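U., I forgot to send this yesterday:
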Amino acid sequence: MLPPALRSAAAVFVPSRATEADLLACYPLPGLAGRVHLIPEGPTPLPAAGPLPEGIEPGFVLAVGTLEARKNYRRLVAAHAGLAGAPPLVFAGRPGWNGDRAPRGSGVRVLGHVDDATLASLYRHASILAFPSLYEGFGIPLLDAMAAGVPALVGERGALPELAGEAALTVDAESTAAIAAGLRRLLSEAPLRRRLAAAGRRRAKDYSWPAAAQLVLRHLAEIAE
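Result:
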């Protein structure tokens, strides 16, 4: 379905330059590049934080997203297991499309899907966000974490480095050892956490859904004219 749609579309919106590059590499159609427009997404409009789920104390490592293979959770669990004295690893997200098994391990808690108030509380009380995904076209959990002032570890593939800029610690997502080293560094270096938290808040201010809507309207007006 996509090639005919791309041939006839007056405009194609993408959330990141990484997605644009992938699109053009997969579909090298004549004239397509001139019709692709960047529309960055915005953070989730979360309500006031609710209570933490029972049995979870502040200071945990948080992972947010669907439970599927591209999120790289198996390596994350293995990396976390190798860190002596690490805080619990908490997962929030529903099962993904490919039926990847829920993460298991000592010190691992899988919450499944959570409501927005609980998600806000998880961001508020997490020590770091662990997001070593193998591929993201944008990365809303990272943007939400930056907006909440949560320092993050991210994979170096896809759109995550583009979104993070200097506001997150990037690692080789295919290396369990690199993920473990990144977690260890973030958990042990308070100045680094403070620096990334401040940088994340500043960077998150550049992204909003109203700004995205204005870009969409502008391009629609150009098409209409």
